[in-house]
């Protein structure tokens, strides 16, 4: 199918996105991408992008909060209650309160009526937001499994994937998720009702996001920065983070690549979203890294205060945290890593060794990635065109975050991620690791230099300070590789 080529990503953003995400913008009720093509894009693209005109026939497009309240009458759901504040500190889940309520009670409260009774009686609507986040379909619709078919991720090239592998998010104005990255997979997000604003940052900017594992949640690395109201005195390197923003409207599907940081906020009175995390080859090592993180965090934090896990353990984490259990979890993750590659038809175990040298896990993990990159480069060469167009809109860097104003470490205008021609696209992939390391190293050097003229802080190093170093994503990646090397010898 011929795609209209726009002169710039900004023009594309302004002209291409249909406000309601419904067919009619030249689609003629024909989906712009086949499932095979959609999956090819998802598995190769390393920039966030919005799919349009792909879900107009999904029954789930009618899943407004009102509709769901009728589908789930009397079903009590846990809502996270947060303050509509302008504080510079992130509002983590450990700092929020919670209310068990039905969707009907939520909608009544959300009308802003004074003197309301029920679960929300202690929460002034003008001061609080409510968020039923991360609700697995299998738990919500346990006795209504037919509804799983209303979500059809098979249209994106994943046969059999539907609501069973999805989660539901329902929020009021101001409800948000603190800035974080997901350790596993990539993400597809279908916006059903209302609009959400996404703030995204590339993986290479991780040092500028000040990563932390407190509060601890498996597969979530949080940022210490409130990205919508940052404390630049405390987190000066955040100025260099390259913010990409998009407002997701009903009927649109956002693709979030692996390890992209994101902060998500509801900007309409009621929002409903459905998402699914897509498993990737890299997840096998990531599970080892997460098991290392879990073991270290739980060991140190329980030793510090064995009776107050709620202060550092995210409410979503309900499993036992004993050292014995976590060690079994770690051993299981390492064994699963080897089991996968022993039976994998895609990557043979011989690829783990090069010229008789010891196991190099990093090179091994690059094998799967390089294969995807070469496929992408070949595809771009064959088509001689970007996949972007009216039905696939790139999420671009915000103008106010342009590198020329930011004084960044290397020159870039955000177009490196677009891959409009084969040569440029290949250059991105070949230099990605080097650029990430360069940015990380420079971030450390500049942080030290920026404090070089002042006396060192007299504040005692806390357990959390130690953990920020020990379970930094870069460190756990190295530890995971060493563990796997030792197990293979």
UniProtKB/TrEMBL annotation:
UniProt-annotated location(s): Cytoplasm
Gene Ontology CC: one annotated term: cytoplasm
Domain JmjC: residue ranges: 129-293
InterPro entries per record: Cupin_8 (IPR041667), HSPB1-associated_protein_1 (IPR013296), JmjC_dom (IPR003347)
Keywords: Cytoplasm
Main location: cytoplasm
Function: May play a role in cellular stress response.
Subunit and interaction comment: Interacts with CRYAB and HSPB1.
Name under which the protein is recorded: HSPB1-associated protein 1
Organism for this UniProt entry: Equus caballus
Lineage, broadest ranks: Eukaryota, Metazoa, Chordata, Craniata, Vertebrata
């Amino acid at each position: 199918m011929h795609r209209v080529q726009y002169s710039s990503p900004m023009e594309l953003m302004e002209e291409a996105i249909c406000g309601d995400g419904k067919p009619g913008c030249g689609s003629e009720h024909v989906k712009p991408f086949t499932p095979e093509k959609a999956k090819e894009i998802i598995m190769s693209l390393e920039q966030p992008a919005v799919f349009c005109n792909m879900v107009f026939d999904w029954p789930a497009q009618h899943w407004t909060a009102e509709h769901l309240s009728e589908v789930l009458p009397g079903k009590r759901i846990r809502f996270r209650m947060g303050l509509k504040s302008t504080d510079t500190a992130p509002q983590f889940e450990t700092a929020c309160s919670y209310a068990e309520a039905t969707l009907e009670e939520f909608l009544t409260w959300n009308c802003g009526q004074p003197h309301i009774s029920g679960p929300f009686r202690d929460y002034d609507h003008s001061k609080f937001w409510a968020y039923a986040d991360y609700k697995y379909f299998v738990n919500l619709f346990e006795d209504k499994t037919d509804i799983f078919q209303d979500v059809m991720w098979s249209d994106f090239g994943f046969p059999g994937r539907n609501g069973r592998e999805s989660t539901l998010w329902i929020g009021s104005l101001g409800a948000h998720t603190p800035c974080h990255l997901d350790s596993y997979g990539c993400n597809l997000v279908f916006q059903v009702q209302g609009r959400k604003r996404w703030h995204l940052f590339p993986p290479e900017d991780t040092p500028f996001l000040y990563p932390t594992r407190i509060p601890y949640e498996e597969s979530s690395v949080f940022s210490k920065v409130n990205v919508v109201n940052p404390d630049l005195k405390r987190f000066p390197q955040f100025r260099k983070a390259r913010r990409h923003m998009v407002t997701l409207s009903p009927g649109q599907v956002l693709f979030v690549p692996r390890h992209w940081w994101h902060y998500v906020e509801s900007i309409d009175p009621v929002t409903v979203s459905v998402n699914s995390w897509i498993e990737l080859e890299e997840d096998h090592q990531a599970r080892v890294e997460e098991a290392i993180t879990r073991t270290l965090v739980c060991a140190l934090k329980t030793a510090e205060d064995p009776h107050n896990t709620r202060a550092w353990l995210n409410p979503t984490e309900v499993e036992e945290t004993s050292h014995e259990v976590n060690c079994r979890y770690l051993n299981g993750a390492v064994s699963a890593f080897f089991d996968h590659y022993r039976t994998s038809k895609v990557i043979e175990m011989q690829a783990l060794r090069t010229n008789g040298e010891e196991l190099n896990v990093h090179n091994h993990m690059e094998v799967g990635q390089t294969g995807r990159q070469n496929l992408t480069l070949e595809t771009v060469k064959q088509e001689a065109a970007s996949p972007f167009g009216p039905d696939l809109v790139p999420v671009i860097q915000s103008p106010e975050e342009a590198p020329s104003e930011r004084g960044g470490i290397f020159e870039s205008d955000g177009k490196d991620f677009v891959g409009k021609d084969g040569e440029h696209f290949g250059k991105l992939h070949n230099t990605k690791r080097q650029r990430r390391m360069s940015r990380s190293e420079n971030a450390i050097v500049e942080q030290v230099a920026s404090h070089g003229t002042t006396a060192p802080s007299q504040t005692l190093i806390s357990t959390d300070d130690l953990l920020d170093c020990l379970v930094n994503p870069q460190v756990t990646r190295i530890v995971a590789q060493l563990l796997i090397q030792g197990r293979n010898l």
